Amino acid sequence: MPRFTPAELEAARDRLVPDVIADGLSVLFCGINPGLMSAATGHHFARPGNRFWPVLHLSGFTPRQLKPSEQDELPAYGLGITNVAARATARADELGEEEFREGGRILTAKVERLRPRWLAVAGVTAYRTAFGDRTARIGPQDRTIGDTRIWALTNPSGLNAHWTVQTMAEEFARLRAAAMTDAP
């Protein structure tokens, strides 16, 4: 992983990180928004300490731990990545509620077009705001987007210390089991 100066990271602010998507995925993972490291590298969940990639592997979604730079391998596993808000920031709390709501509208249209079996939003608070569901909890949601079911996950950021890698992997594994159960 290249090292970036604070100025280089700041220059990545507001950059967009392209989605890793395809039609008919098993699970489309959805982050809150790209961090500055992700924007600087062009890879989702790129910040060292972000637990997405280890948890994805430990839960059985991938046969080995992928690096952020290997994100384009995900569709071969029936997986993809997008974000609620496209704009890169240093912290998710730099996004306003309207930006989350607009992101929810854009995400809904994207899901309607791509038709993944599951949308997995990695950040239950972001899910609550984007979809106006203040009572959502971690796990499967009652709401669907067409035939796409929704699962709210915890945010894999290293700042979210309440969840360990192991407990996160267990929740991701529950999603994986559900995605395998409803596979065609």
Automatic annotation (TrEMBL):
Coiled coil: none annotated. Keywords: DNA damage, DNA repair, Glycosidase, Hydrolase. Residues 18-179 form the Uracil-DNA glycosylase-like domain. It comes from the Bacteria. Its EC number is 3.2.2.28. PANTHER family: G/T AND G/U MISMATCH-SPECIFIC DNA GLYCOSYLASE, G_T MISMATCH-SPECIFIC THYMINE DNA GLYCOSYLASE. One of its GO terms (molecular function) is hydrolase activity, acting on glycosyl bonds. NCBIfam families: PRK10201.1. The lineage of its organism: Bacteria, Bacillati, Actinomycetota, Actinomycetes, Kitasatosporales. The gene is mug. This is G/U mismatch-specific DNA glycosylase. Pfam families: UDG (PF03167).
